[in-house]
Sequence to fold (116 residues):
Amino acid sequence: MPTDFRDGKTFPRRGREALDGYLWLLRVFDKARASAAGTIHDYIYPCPMDKGVMERWGIAPADFDAAIRAHQSDEAILGWLRERTTPSQRDAANRWLLEERTENLDRQDREEVAAV
Fold:
């Protein structure tokens, strides 16, 4: 689980990488932890994409911040999110990403995946 992006060669996990059907969760988890640790480099957290997904999940960024302090693993943050969201909220966030933010996802892939 990457949390230090200061070298410019390590990146948050892809927004298209799903965890139990939740797109963006792994990426926002990585960015949030890096932000809390002061190792986010030139990434922005919460960026408009983070906020858009959280809004559709029904989660405030401050609540997510509190959750990352309490839940350090992917499984733990997933459990926390499952308790607070419905499948329809998860699906709404995924649709928003895949239908309205495809250009952003494609740009991330070009900039980050191609660099690896």
